[in-house]
Amino acid sequence: MLRFIRRNLAAHKIRLILSALAVVLGVAFVAGTFIFTDTLSKTFDDLFAQTTSDVELTPQQAFTTNRAPRDREISIPASLVDRVEKSPDVERAEGFVQVDGVYVIGDDGKVVGTPGAPAFGTSWSDDEELSPYRLVPGEGKGPTAAGQVAIDTQTAESGGLAVGDTIKIVTPRGPSQAKVTGIFRFGASGNLAGASLTAFDPLTAQKLLLAPGEVSAISVKSKPGFTQDQTKASIEKTLTPSERKKVKVQTGKEAADEQAATIAEALSFVNIFLLVFAILALIVGSFIILNTFSMLVAQRSRELALLRALGASRRQVTGAVLGEAVVVGIVGAIVGIGLGLVLALGLKQLISTLGGDLPTGALVVQPRTVIVALIVGLFVTVAAAYIPARRASRIPPVAAMRAEVALPQRSLRNRVIIGLILLVAGVISLIIGVGKAGATGATYVGAGSALLLFTVIVLSPVIASPVIGFLGIPIRRRGIAGRIAVNNAQRNRRRTASTASALMIGLALVGAMSILGASTKASTSASVEGVLRADFIVTSTTFRGFSPVVAQDVKAVPGVGVVSPIRSAPGQINKRVEVIGGIDPATVSQVLALDFQQGSVAGAKNGFIVDDETFSSNNLTIGQSIRVLFADGNTVKLPVTATFARDGLLSGYVTSNANLVKAGQPDLDSAVYATLDKGADPVTVKADIDKALADLPTVVVKDQSEYKASVVGQVDQILAIIYALLGLAIIISILGIVNTLALSVVERTREIGLLRAVGMSRKQMKSSIRWESMVIAVFGALLGLGLGVIFGVSLQKVLRNEGIQLLAIPWGQLIAFLVVSALVGVLAALWPARRASRLNVLDAISSE
User: Fold this and answer.
1) Is residue 797, in this structure, part of any structural domain at all?
2) Does 662 lie in the same domain as 749?
């Protein structure tokens, strides 16, 4: 049987290439995802491993979150340094300042460095046993006084800066100037994976970035003979019980491991996000494999019957077919791993092209990646080939005596029963989900969507013949070529359905995302137009807060009317992290049209105003006290004083800016809204605001139309990424159409020869193959886009409380997808059609 498998693989190698290619692309995506994220993880692990201190003391955060930018830099008293140094195990200790949000401004007035990357301000230390910073030989010295800074090598190269240059720096407190006294590297790597570093002398760093007498961390060097654990225990004994609640003591290894774990958690999201699309591609590829082996088994029916007649058991026949699948899976997986390396390298290069700066180093291929890739490739291939293998084993030995052997066609009755059960369950789940909101509704909608998808896959062979018959009405009018094309697609309804299902899955998700994106943009636009009264909006380009001086500068511009700052801070309510908003109650109503159901905006002075969705979903009542715990450990307890309609611009819980400052939150604004004085020229006023803020390239001024366009543009960027990732599944489905048609040409060689013999021209033969391909593609596209509309509408209903209140169906875009699918079907048929038209008529007629 092994010789039989080898012979068949050699005989059908061209036919199996496209199936293997489907495995290759899916496995490449899986392997590339693991390799890329493992490489990033190793990069950061190496960076954190360069921390040279034996023990680290850092502020104890009440909680961690990614819900909103954390502008509050938690600190510990610098006075702890002296006490820590007196510990018997400690040789020396030093306090360090490190704060995100410190930007170097280039000569072009723009921020130097990678867009969106962290920009740290830090305190300088010459102690190489406690600090990872190393001066580049011949590149100056560390800063020793106010007005001096040292910058990292990457920032110096990106900005064309050198020792002795005077540079502009923007901190959360505003702009300033300083002289570059030195250029340094971060450990051995030279940079911090795209982040920029600006070092000040310790006293200036405290004053400018935190507060005098405060530090971000204390680094400790142990005396010889003492372990990190011993030093840690010794230091903990010097702390009072209240200090232990506020200060975290860790060994150097524990600190590095914690930082690495934080990065790993962030990368896990990227991993899962990419793997979802990889799995989708593999599912689509499984339809190609199923089709390929089904057609190969059908074409080799007499050969397999002869094997049975010569004594091969049903198990041996099944094993032979599955053996071929195993080889295809292994080869596809191995090639996929190699292609995954190329993909990971491409992603790394893409980040560099977009401005990212990752330390150089080899790609990381862990044994887990290879094992998972091989298992995935084998499982998908063997699972998809199992049904054809079973069908092959059921061919009776007596069939070998017949001139032609046809595999028995099973009834579709069971499919109809199963499909109807799935349909009912899916519809019920969707109805329940649409009636709910939040995670519960999303779960039901997700389950219902999956059930409907399986319903269509199961029932597609049942509906293929009548639907294609309807779609083929205009094609039949194209003559004999059109009629043959439609008849072939109807005759092989299982094959047609399987080929169309591959395209259907990708387009269902594309359609759903199109509707969700269009609904998001429509809701955002309506929110801006209906709620935003401000003529100008000032926001940060760095996703961090900015100084209240910005609002003062805007207010001072002639022609500006009301100026109202907005703030935000992450806070924990009942152990759930929420974004706590801050407003100026005296001015916010003039820049935002808030619709209050209970109370008024004045309630924010001494309490929380809460949007109606948050109010109802948390069963709140007017007068109920809400306790908020902030990340720095500070708390605030205020009553609910009013409710307003959710508008998409304010968070669920809102109080006054003054209350946030009283709770110890940073005196920084998230946005500033401004109105235009009556009779003032908006173009002139906007230009004057730009001039007033020219020294702050970290903020940007937009009018209403620009603001709306920027929000809509963010949605388009997300959709573009999703479409690109879904493109892999679409490409694989196109390969499936090519593969099916190519095998179909081989299967129908004698039929094609007879048609040519009775007068069918090469042109007509090509047209017939192209029409067949197009009608299959359109069938799959209609199923997919139809499901996409159902999924998209359901998702919008579930997310209506998350700011997507309006449903928008982009019919023009969906029709464009349908037209493109038809064109793709024509293109997919080019090679099979050309091959069919070039068959030798006599050889084709005499073929078995």
Assistant:
1) yes
2) no
Range of the domain at 179: 52-252
Alpha-carbon distance of 44 to 263, in angstroms, equals: 7
Shared-domain flag, residues 497 and 583: no
Q: Can you say how many angstroms the Cα of residue 175 is from the centroid of all Cα atoms in its chain?
A: 34
DSSP states along 758-819: TT--HHHHHHHHHHHHHHHHHHHHHHHHHHHHHHHHHHHHHGGGGT--S----HHHHHHHHH
pLDDT value at 297 more than 70: yes
pLDDT grade, residue 68 (50/70/90)? very low
Q: Are 702 and 537 in contact (CB under 8 A)?
A: yes
pTM above 0.90, yes or no: no
Residue 353 CB partners (closer than 8 Å, separation 6+): none
In sequence order, the β-bridge partners of residue 537 are: 673, 702
Residues 558, 488: one domain?
no
Asked whether residue 693 falls in the same domain as residue 712, the answer is no
- Tokens in use for 269? 């999201």
* Token representation of residue 427: 């519809």
Q: Is the pLDDT of residue 63 over 80?
A: no
Sequence-distant (6+) residues with CB within 8 A of 417 are: none
- Distance from chain centroid for Cα 393: 44
Cα separation, 260 vs 296, in Å, equals 50
Q: How many domains does the chain have?
A: 3
CB atoms under 10 Å from CB of 819, counted, come to 12
Give the pLDDT confidence of 223-273 residue by residue, as tens digits.
Answer: 998 999 999 999 999 898 888 888 999 998 888 788 777 777 767 777 787
φ/ψ (deg, to 5) at 68: -155, 160
Tokens encoding 322 = 């599955």
- Return the structure tokens found at 228: 């990190």
Same domain, 618 and 496: no
Residues contacting residue 433 through CB under 8 Å, at least 6 positions apart:
440, 441, 442, 443, 444, 445, 446, 447, 448, 794, 798
Q: Which two tokens stand for residue 225?
A: 């003979």
Q: Classify residue 337: in a domain, yes or no.
A: no
First to last CA, the chain: 24
Q: Supply the angle between the helices 438-471 and 413-434 in degrees, to the nearest 10.
A: 140
d(CA 451, CA 426): 5
pLDDT surpassing 80 at residue 298: no
Non-local CB neighbours of 300 within 8 Å, separated by 6+ positions: 8, 392
Token reading at 755: 């048609």
Asked if residue 90 and residue 164 are part of one domain, the reply reads yes
Residue 840: what are its φ and ψ, rounded to 5°?
-70, 125
Indicate whether 110 and 224 sit together in one domain: yes
Q: What is the mean pLDDT of residues 693-719?
A: 88
Q: For residue 423, is it within any domain?
A: no
φ/ψ (deg, to 5) at 759? 120, 0
Q: What are phi and psi of 364, to 5 degrees?
A: -100, 115
